[in-house]
From TrEMBL:
Transmembrane segments: none annotated. Belongs to the transferase hexapeptide repeat family. It comes from the Bacteria. The lineage of its organism: Bacteria, Bacillati, Actinomycetota, Actinomycetes, Geodermatophilales. GO terms for molecular function: O-acyltransferase activity. It comes from Geodermatophilus telluris. InterPro entries: Hexapeptide_acetyltransf, Trimer_LpxA-like_sf. Keywords: Transferase. This is Bacterial transferase hexapeptide (Six repeats).
């Protein structure tokens, strides 16, 4: 079952390859000329803004991984970690059993 929620229309020339999975959809904004590879997931409980001329894809981010705001992910990130910085680096391991 899929629920359609209001989302700001993507900018001109933006291509988002389905499926796109979002938490709310009302806090997600894509600028112009963006590209999102197949199957992106955005947990937009807080605002997420993707600026103009941005390409998302080409790396894998493991389950239960937190990517800090402003991080630049240039290579795959494992599951259950916190990654921050430019380039993104793992700074902490998370306990997958913790709530």
């Amino acid at each position: 079952m899929c629920t359609v929620v209001p989302m700001t229309a993507p900018g001109e020339g933006t291509e988002i390859r389905p499926p796109l999975h979002v938490d709310s959809g009302s806090h997600l904004r894509f600028g112009a000329r963006c590209s999102a590879d197949h199957g992106p997931v955005a947990l937009d409980v807080a605002p997420i803004t993707v600026g103009d001329d941005v390409e998302l894809g080409g790396v894998a981010i493991g389950e239960n991984t937190v990517v800090g705001a402003g991080a630049v992910v240039t290579r795959d990130l494992p599951a259950n970690v916190v990654a921050v910085g430019d380039p993104a680096r793992v700074v902490r391991t998370l306990d997958p059993a913790a709530p």
